[in-house]
Specification:
Length: 458
């Protein structure tokens, strides 16, 4: 673990500058062996936490390689907590890989993906949820994703989890005292108090679990499925939203056979829109396979855009659709509003148990802005941004849900006057799951999984 690692931290290719990052015990020695500061100072006297300008030289033949800036961070005041050197050279692919090769020749080894951040975690510079947030900041593709990742990096989630963790730890302490002195046991008053504290913590954990729906949308964007019977204008609507002729549109029902996924951006939220094969009774063989995919897309989507053709009376295929989307979060769209209306919107809304629909025309563009506003509102989920801590990863949701169910067992055991030992077991399980998010308790496999998601050099 103490060996010295190095990597080019900037993307492959040509640019203004490239950065070669080195971390570990040998970092400083390696850098001083190949750097000549301007003004004749000795490389060995490199002042920490400063930027130095000079020439990078090949230590074997003393020939200059590039003019560079060298940043020097001494342990523990660095990203990884170790000695770190960053060499900023000109942004050529050749020059940067040559410098990296020289660094490796001096005894460093190529870093694995995410290894710098992994060291930051191992050295206690970041907890695990903060390390994950580093990746999320890098991958953020919208303001919402960036804001929530940054809040997590700054420790907003960690603080919240640490508070809950410590609260449970105190409860465990009281329980263990009762276990150690069985003749005294837990008094009635004490027991009630513990129960209340457990309940309070459990409620807060539940709020975090519930925040995942929203957090996932912040991190990954909103996933929307366009569904309807054949020929209602699903593909036309996709094209209208994209402002591009992406999907094939024809007057023949059953045109779209396979699902088609595209991204649009509405304000600061990414929306993934999936166009699907029209749902209908007794489809042909190929269509049947398409409809399977439609159902899958519907199941995966955060929101369904349920489309009806307002210029034709409803039929049994619409009825099939209404049944399919009964339990789904949805917006109701009445397309082809440029043609004379042939349906009774109120009767339809009643069947869908909704009180409003958006009238639109994929052909003329009428109602598109209203639809975009509704999509945006749905992505925000009625929440005021920055109001509360949200979780954005399935790993966190799962751990919190496990912790919550362990706490439910704790409450039950307390109510049923079970032994303190048994209560302590479940309490420990809850602690383990909370600690797992922060990386207090972890397995190497999990770390491999998390850090392999990173780029090399981070
Ligand atoms: N007048 C009018 N015609 C429309 C509108 N939207 C779509 N259409 C027409 O309706 C027909 C079917 O449109 P598509 O977009 O292919 O319909 P779809 O729902 O994707 O159909 P499938 O892929 O077969 O399920 C085409 O001839 C479109 O030009 C609209 O708003 N107004
Ligand atoms: Mg289509």
């Amino acid at each position: 673990m103490n060996d010295t690692i190095a990597a080019i931290a900037t993307p492959v290719g040509e640019g203004g500058i490239h950065i070669i990052r080195i971390s570990g015990e040998e970092a400083l020695a390696i850098a001083t062996g190949m750097f000549q500061p301007q003004g004749g100072a000795k490389a060995a006297d490199l002042e920490p936490q400063r930027v130095h300008y000079g020439m990078l030289i090949d230590p074997t033949d003393k020939q200059p390689v590039d003019e560079v800036l060298l940043l020097c961070f001494r342990a523990p005041h660095s990203f990884t907590g170790e000695d770190v050197i960053e060499i900023q050279c000109h942004g050529g692919a050749y020059v940067s890989s040559k410098i990296l090769q020289l660094v490796l020749d001096q005894g460093a080894r190529p870093a694995e993906p995410g290894e710098f951040t992994r060291r930051a975690f191992t050295n206690g510079r970041l907890d695990l949820s903060q390390a994950e947030a580093v990746a999320d900041v890098i991958h953020a593709a919208s303001d919402k994703a960036l804001t929530s990742a940054l809040a997590q990096l700054k420790g907003q989630l960690s603080d919240k989890l640490n508070t809950l963790y410590n609260e449970l730890l105190q409860v465990l302490g009281q329980l263990e005292a009762a276990i150690d002195f069985p003749e005294e046991g837990l008094e009635f008053v004490q027991k009630q108090q513990l129960e209340q504290r457990i309940q309070g913590t459990s409620d807060q954990i539940k709020r975090l679990v519930d925040s995942y729906r929203q957090g996932k949308i912040y991190r990954e964007g909103l996933k929307v499925a366009l569904v309807g019977k054949p020929n209602v204008g699903k593909s036309s609507l996709l094209n209208a939203l994209l402002q591009e002729d992406r999907a094939i549109v024809t007057p023949h029902p059953g045109t779209t056979r396979d699902t088609l996924e595209e991204r649009v951006r509405i304000k600061d939220i990414h929306i993934t829109i999936v166009d699907t094969a029209g749902l209908r009774h007794q489809p042909g063989e190929i269509e049947e396979m398409g409809i399977e995919r439609t159902r899958h897309a519907l199941a995966q989507a955060d929101l369904a855009l349920v489309i009806f053709d307002a210029s034709h009376a409803l039929d049994t295929n619409d009825a099939l659709l209404i049944k399919e989307v009964a339990d789904k979060k949805k917006l109701v769209l009445l397309n082809k509003s440029d043609l004379p209306t042939a349906i009774d919107p109120n009767a339809l809304l009643k069947q869908l148990k909704r009180d409003s629909a958006i009238r639109l025309s994929a052909t003329t563009g009428e109602g598109l802005n209203e639809l975009k506003d509704a999509l945006y509102q749905s992505a925000l989920g009625g929440r005021i941004a920055g109001e509360a801590v949200v979780i954005t990863r399935e790993r966190h949701r799962q751990a919190l849900a496990e912790a919550q169910s362990a706490l439910t067992r704790v409450s039950q055991s307390l109510q049923e006057d079970r032994s303190e030992d048994l209560v302590a077991v479940d309490l420990n399980i809850a602690l383990e799951h909370l600690g797992g998010i922060l990386g207090k308790t972890f397995v190497d496999d999990l770390l491999d999984q998390i850090f392999n998601d990173f780029c090399i050099g981070k």
